[in-house]
Amino acid sequence: MGAIITLCLLGILVLYLGLYKAKNALLPVSVLGLLVALGFEIYTWNVNPEPLYKGMVLFDHFALSFSILCISLTILILFLSKEYFKAISDNVAEYYCLILFSLTGALMVNAYHNFAMLFIGIEIMSVAMYILTGIRRTDKISNEASLKYFIMGAFSTGFLLFGITLLYGATGSFDLSAIKLYILDNPTTVSPLFYAGILLLLVGLCFKVGVAPFHFWTPDVYDGAPILITTFMSTVVKIASFAGFLRLFSTVLVPLNEFWTPILLTVVIITLFVGNISALMQTSFKRMMAYSSVSHAGYMLFAILSIGPNSAAGILTYSAAYGLASIIAFASLILVKRNVGSDQFESFNGLGKTNPGLAFAVTVAMLSLAGIPLTAGFIGKFMMFSNVMNDYHTVLLVLAAINAAIGVFYYLRVVVHMYLMKKGEAEHTEVSFPANFKFVLILAVILTILIGIYPNCIVGLI
What we know:
Its EC number is 7.1.1.-. The chain is an all-alpha fold. It has one domain. The chain has 20 helices and no strands. The protein has helices at about 1-20, 25-45, 60-80, 90-110, 115-135, 140-170, 175-185, 190-210, 215-225, 225-250, 255-280, 285-300, 300-305, 310-340, 350-355, 355-370, 375-390, 395-420, 435-455, 455-460. α5 (about 115-135) packs antiparallel against α10, α6 (about 140-170) crosses α9 (about 215-225) and α12 packs antiparallel against α18 (about 395-420). The model has no long low-confidence stretch (mean pLDDT about 90).
C-alpha cells in the first residue's frame, strides 16, 4: 500500500512544482518518487500476503510482480519524456501528474481483492488516459481519439458495472473469496444471474484490453495520441488490465471454465486474425503497432484460456517482453518522426547506414515482437503456446502458428526498410540521438536479450 500512497502524494507534489514553475525538477522528482514506490513493492515481497482494508486489496507475489513491472516501465517512459512534453504544451506538470495517477490506478487493478477496488482502479487508470490522449488541444486527430476513447471506455465500464452488479445479486458480496466460495458451495445450482454477470464482465474486460471484436477504439486512439502517451497506454495500461483479467478468472471463475472457455476461445481466434491481417495492411508504423497490439492481446489471452500453474509467470514474461519491445519501437519512432516528420515505413529507409545503433535496437524490438529465439518475445510466446498445448487446444495452436508467421512478415518489413531500402533525397541523413534515449534503448535491448537467454530471471518471480 506504501507504493500507492507514494504515487498519490507524488502526483500532487508534481502539480505544485508546475504551479511554482519548477519545470526542470519535474522529471528527477517523478523518477525519484517512482523509485521510492518501487522500493516499497520490493520491501513488501517477503511480507505474508493477506487481504487488507476489509479485504479490498491483496499484495501477494502476483500483484507485486505486475506492479514492479508497471513502475519499471513507467520509469523508462518518463526518461524519454525529457524535452518531449515541452514541444507539445507549456503545461508540462499535467503530463507527469496524469501519468502518475494512471499508474496508481494500474497498481490498484493489480492488487484488487474486491470488485469495488477493481472499478476504482480501472477508472483512475482510464480517466487520466482520456485526458492525455486529447491533451494536444489544437490537434483535431488527437481530440477525435480522446472522444472515441472516452465514449468506448464509458460504454465498456457500463458492461463491467452491470456484470459486477449481477454477480453481487447472485452472491451478496463484492469480495473475490466470498464469490469463489459461492461457486464451490453451489457447483450445480449457480444462479442464472451469475452466468449473465460473467458474460458482461467478459465484454467489459475485453473492451479494456482491446481484443477483437471489441478493439475498434484501439487503432484510432493509439494513432491520435502523442507517441509517448501511446507507449504508456500500450504497455502499462494494457499489462495492468490483463493482470486484473487473469486474477478474476484464475482465482474465482475456474470452476465454471466449461461455460466461459468456448466464448473466450472464439474471441482469441477472431483477435489473432483481425489483429495480424489488419497490421499486415498498414503503411504507417504507428498504426501497425496499434493493430499488432490487438494480436498480442490475443496471445496474452492464452494464459487465461488455459489457466494453470504457469499462467501468471507466462503472462508476466510476455508482458515484460512486449513492454520492453514497445518502448524501443515507440522511442525509435519519436526520433525518426522528429527528424523526418512522418511515421510511414519509408521514414526508416536507410537507418541501418546512418544510425546503425538505433537500427540495431529497432531490429531487436521487431524480432522480439515477432517471437524470434534469443529474445524475450520468444520466451513469452513459448510459454503462451505451452499453456495452450497442455490443454490440447490443437486447432488454436495451429491457427496461432499461422498468425505468428504473419506477424514475422510485417515486423521484418521494418527491418527490410532500415537495411535494404535507400533513403529519399529530401530526408535528413542522420537521426539525432539524445543521451536519455540512448540510456533507455540500451537498457531495454539488454533486458530483452537477457530475458531471451536467461528467462528464469523473471519466470521465477511468481
